[in-house]
Amino acid sequence: MPHRYTVNPMPASRDPVSLLAVDRCVSELRRGRIVAVRGSGGASALVLAAEAVTPEALNEISAASNSRPGLVITRRRAEVLGLTSGDDMVMTLAAHAEWKAEAILDIADPLSALGAGTPDGFDIVGAAAFSCEAAAIGLVKLARLLPAAVVAVRDAPDSEDLNVWAVRHDMLVVDAGDVFQYEHTAARSLKAVSEARVPLTAAEHTRIVAFRPLDGGLEHLAIIIGDPTDQVAGAGVLTRLHSECFTGDLLGSLRCDCGDQLRGAIEEIARAGGGILLYLAQEGRGIGLVNKLRAYELQDRGFDTIDANEQLGFDADERVYLPAAEMLRQLGFEKIRLMTNNPDKISALSKFGVDVKGRVAHTFPANKHNESYLQTKAGRSGHLI
Length: 385
Fold this sequence. Notes:
With 385 residues, this protein is an alpha/beta fold. The protein has 2 domains: 15-184, Alpha-Beta Complex (DHBP synthase); 190-282 and 319-380, 3-Layer(aba) Sandwich (Rossmann fold), CATH 3.40.50. Helix content is 38%, strand content 21%. The chain has a 7-stranded mixed sheet, with helices on both faces. Helix 1 packs across helix 7, helix 7 (176-188) packs parallel to helix 13 and helix 11 packs across helix 12 (305-312).
């Protein structure tokens, strides 16, 4: 194991432009602004995050697009509302009359007054897998907002170039394809940017290597404990993938077992003489801290952890494990023994070229606050014991 990380230069590509375009549009959506999405075949649409909708923004997107906007939601959210139609993962609700901002917020947010009732007054149209509508959902998910967006197809009878048109209207433009590839592009562009010795209470001989994607996005951390190379040949390096959890890791929340898993993994790896803990910037199984807190409120209303995510419109688990595979590759570890109870992590890493030689069980006692949570993970997500 080298004492310093190795920086692998990225090959020349359009990746920097692709990542920047997505990042800038994500920031605009979080600010409540409208962005333009370029689809295939000359299609284009304007997008506004449903969470940020206002009467003024609705008027602006209608006037700028010269068309009536629709509300795009995920299939998960549609199922909650009893609105599923066909097998499309994304669908547009086309209102019979002009949308009202309050109605959009009611449909998008399960914590609104609407709840899980079935609204009416619109038609349901499925969206193609790689359409502007699907890209809109991808953007708001990357923004860690509610997975719903106001989308208006741009009606431009003069066929003006989208880039020129967007400059005149003070809007940013992103290609739909760049949105769909964003997470994989960002993961492939990871590089180590800093390293330091950080003695820990349970593992004095520890180094932390920070990996940052090419777009300057959130860093993932490799916590290297002891000497990972000083293990039985062929057995694989003892490894733990840990998704960040502000409430559990830092505050000691009793609603989950994340804090126990983090500190327990560090202790176990230290006892084994060495290994790696990859600390991944994927709060709330990939939905972000704000949405995780929304899910907690739904759990207080009687939903389990999976149903709460789906009430919000997310999949049960939105995480991507390509960053972990890329970090292991750059650190020089091809064979690992994975500390996990989640079989999805094993299959995901294997798909990305990591040789998982075995699983090491990683469980901790439940408490009265997280007992139901742990039972749900075992019973519905297939977590092992």
